[in-house]
Structure formats: structure tokens, C-alpha cells
Amino acid sequence: MVLPLLALCLALAGWGAPRLLSGSSWALRAPRIALATWAALVLSFAAAVVMVVHAVSEPGHLRERPGRWLSWSAVASPAEGAAGHDQALSLGAIVLTAVAAVVGTGWVRTARTRARHRAVLAVAGRQDTEHDWCVVEDDRPAVWCVPGRGGRVVLTRGALERLAPAHREAVVAHERAHLAGRHHLWVGAAKALGDALGRLPLAREMARQVPVLVEMAADDAALRHCTPRVLAQALCIVAGGGTPRGTLAAGSHAAVQRVRRLLQPARPLPPALCAAWWLVLTVLPAVPVLLACGP
User: Fold this and answer.
1) Residue ranges of the chain with per-residue pLDDT less than 50
2) How far apart are CA 239 and CA 255, in angstroms?
3) Where do runs of H (alpha helix) occur along the chain?
4) How do residues 191-250 score in pLDDT, each as one tens digit?
5) Measured on CA atoms in the order 9, 10, 11, 15, is the torsion positive or negative?
6) Would you state the pLDDT for residue 158?
7) Which of 47, 40, 51, 96 is nearest to 282 (CA)?
8) What letter does residue 9 receive in the DSSP assignment?
């Protein structure tokens, strides 16, 4: 009974849930929760892979009933329940190390791209100390940020000329939300996993959805400094400006969808539902482990 349940966890985390999450409307209402859901699904999938291999290689698990560890006998004899789980720990360490290597390689690659861009800005950009942003001579209206050490907000001369002060404040607040939230780590991890595991719907859909969700999260943070209409107008102005690789920009991802979201806002999710969902996300990666091993 254990193996079918673990296979179900594997299928739901790797195939079923990503398809449902990609087409869900609630993710647009709560982008931060949606980002955490993608992370929980990755951890759940990795845990399910480890536990399936562990259950198959330890035939004793296949004869045990699910939830056996909840019984009084398992509580009374914890040493017996823990026997044979050293292999599961070793497998888990190997899988987590592999995931960390893939994500870390992606982060290093994008960090090098950003370092080259910062070197270009040091020569071609002009630092505006009054407003704490960098200005680049370009007629196209564009605004972006360069995350990482020494993160900065960059505006083109075209953006300064076409954006009204209120619009400028809105897009700059958006970019500073990216820097404060370290959104580049989310995007870099999703892209690295998508490149490495492109055939897996979980990795493929995550790489497609995470850049949009971080932009929506930054939009929500920027609304503390401006109205939705002002931010929507600013996004329309900078949407076609183009931005360098390795950066995060206000108008770079799903601009039309985000403008519609700002001008036709949906009701936020109830606080009780959000709290319950955060609790589910905390427990979700542990479900395959509890099914196969128990505490």
C-alpha cells in the first residue's frame, strides 16, 4: 500500500498540481503564496522520488500499511520503526545536493551576467545621487534593476522624458521591491530547473510562471506608493523598452495581463484561507517521508 501512495504523491507533485496551478486564477490574487506553492511542490517531488526508491529497495516497506507509525506499537518501539532509514537519509542528501547544484549553477551563471552588466553601467551609466538611480542614454523608455551585491535601479533617458513624476515613482518602487524581495533568486532557480528538467511539467511550468509571479508580487508592493491606475499607465509606457539579460524589469513579463489585473482587481483571498494554505505548504514536503518512514 505504501508504494502506490508514494507514486500518487510523485504524479501529483510532478504532473497534476503544476497543470492546475498554472491555470488557476487564485495565483494571480496571491502571487506570494503561489511562489511558495511552487517551491513546496519541488520539495515534495524530490521527497517522493527519494521515498519511492527507498521503498522499492527496502521490500519491508512494501508490506507495511500507510500510517503505521501512528499506531501504538510504533510509538512503543521507535527504534524498530527507524531501522533501515539510513538509506533514505543518504538518498535524500544526494537528491538535495543535486537540486542545489543545478540551482546554484544557474545562480552563478546569472550573477556573472549581472556583473558584466554592472561593468557596462560603470562606464556608460550616470549615477543620479539625488534619486539613487542610474541613468542610461537610450531613447527607448525602459526601467530595470540589477539585483545582487550593489543592486541598483536603472532608467533610460527615454523613460525619464516620458514618465511623469508619479509614474516614475511607481516603476522605481516596483524595481526596489524586486531588490528587497531578492526576486532574482526565485527567477534564477526556476530557470535553472526548467533548463535541466524541461520534460517534467513541474520544472517547465515553474520556469514559465515564476517570472510572472515575481512581477505581480512587485506590483503589489509598489501599490503602497501609488494607485493601481498610475502603475498600470507606467507599465504601458515602459513595456516595450527592452532590458538586458539577468535583470528584472517592470515591463518585461506579461505586461498586458498585469495591467488588466491592476485595472480590474479581484478580491483578495480570505485571511483564514491564506493561513490554512501556508500551513498546508509547510506540511506538504513531509508527506512522502511520513508515508514511507514516519518520524
Assistant:
1) 69-83
2) 6
3) 2-11, 17-22, 26-29, 31-57, 59-62, 72-76, 78-82, 86-124, 157-162, 165-181, 183-196, 201-222, 228-238, 255-263, 271-283, 287-292
4) 999 999 999 999 999 999 999 999 999 999 999 999 999 999 999 999 877 788 888 887
5) positive
6) 95
7) 40
8) H
